[in-house]
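Thread: "does anyone have the structure for this chain?"

Original post by V.I.:
We have the sequence but no experimental structure in hand. Need at least a predicted one for the grant figures.
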Amino acid sequence: MTAMPALATGGTNFTAISITLGIIFIIAAAIAVIVWSYFRLQRHRADAVAMAHFRRLAEEAVANQQELRAQLAELTAKVAAVEQLMREVG
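Reply from O.Q.:
Generated one for you, tokens below.
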């Protein structure tokens, strides 16, 4: 019984501690990267949805602007006709 294991003699096994801490650190870093990537993906998806809404809004604005230009041209023609009538009368 003279040969006792290293841990039973009171010595510290730094190799085992280093390996254990290294594995824990690697696992924690992997979890942190996964969580960060997930939230980055969610932010990207939200930006894509917002951009799609913005594009639709821009297309609607262009359509409304074209409609307003047509109405303005029609109104300009009517005003020109009224001005011509006023010149003829007055």
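V.I.: this helps a lot. The chain has a mean pLDDT of 91.
O.Q.: and Residues 51 and 57 are 10 Å apart (CA to CA).
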